[in-house]
Amino acid sequence: MTKKRVAVLISGRGSNLQALLDAEQDAYEIALVVSNVPDAAGLDRARERGVEAIALDHKPYGKDRAAFERDLDALLIERRIEIVALAGFMRVLTPYFVRAWAGRLINIHPSLLPKFPGTKTHERALAAGETEHGATVHLVVEEVDAGEIIGQASMPILPGDTPETLAERLLAVEHALYPRCLAKLAAHLA
Questions:
Q1: First to last CA, the chain
Q2: Catalytic site residue 109?
Q3: Quick one: pLDDT band at residue 125, thresholds 50, 70, 90?
């Protein structure tokens, strides 16, 4: 089986990117990392591993998200990317991009979807009195955090948890879950 070429889109430090890099397996290879934030620490993580890392700053595009995404799409096609994995990419994608990569665009979300789509998931889980929290890897569709679920993992919410402690503990769950789900998608697309 030929490994699927994966691009990881990031905006920050790249901890989920690191988990994907560390867990590379027979089904996929991280071939490209792109950040919309030029000084994102995740770019250095990729370069340290010998992975091409490109900053495509969204700011020069102003409010023209479609123009930014057309250039991003062209970059991905030029590099023969087959799957796009969002890992802390802090931009909502337009229908154009989502449709162009339908079935090959995945995201990790810090909640047990369908609970708590969107932002502030840790705060919302605590406010709702939940006893467990977790992460979901899903296909990206036009509606935010509504795509087909590829995998989930949960953990208990502990007495005294704060949004910060919950987020910190959840990272380990995410780091184990995301590579498994990316490998599952890559094998499915083979």
A1: 7
A2: yes
A3: very high
* DSSP run (H or E) holding 137: strand 132-139
Regarding the domain with residue range 4-189, which homologous superfamily does it belong to in the CATH classification? Answer: Formyl transferase, N-terminal domain (3.40.50.170)
Task: For the chain, give every domain's residue range.
Answer: 4-189
Q: Active-site residue among 58, 109, 133, 175?
A: 109
- Whether the pLDDT of residue 26 is over 90: the answer is no
Q: Residue 85 corresponds to which amino acid?
A: A
Q: pLDDT value at position 25?
A: 77
Has residue 1 got a pLDDT over 70? no
